[in-house]
Amino acid sequence: KLEALDNLVISTVYNVSNKLCSTSAKVLRKAVDMFTEQDEEQSSTLDTVLFLLEDINLPATPAKKTSRELSGTLRNMKRIEQALEMLTKVMRLDVEADV
Predict the structure, then answer these.
(1) Which of 13, 21, 8 minimizes the C-alpha distance to 76?
(2) What is the pLDDT along the chain (99 residues), one digit of tens a residue?
(3) What helix, strand, coil percent values describe the chain, rounded to 5?
(4) Would you say 35 and 93 are in contact if contact means Cβ atoms under 8 Å apart?
């Protein structure tokens, strides 16, 4: 069974991942405005990624809150990964060239 400190850590990581999603959305919007005109497909993908980044909610029911926070954290990390991939495309960065 999880201890109080475990629950606090899980909750904190979940909250941080929410903030990272929110910040990622802001950065991605700014980059789009600064760097490029989107083609239709990229624009559609961008809209989807931004929607996912901004669609952060946790059901308010206290039952299984820790499990929901853990799954929410994993979803948020995937969203952040997608945002970074899109940011790379928008800015036309060649990440592999930097490795």
Answers:
(1) 21
(2) 678 889 899 999 999 999 999 999 998 888 877 766 666 777 778 888 888 888 877 656 677 888 899 999 999 999 999 999 888 887 776 545 554
(3) 80, 0, 20
(4) no
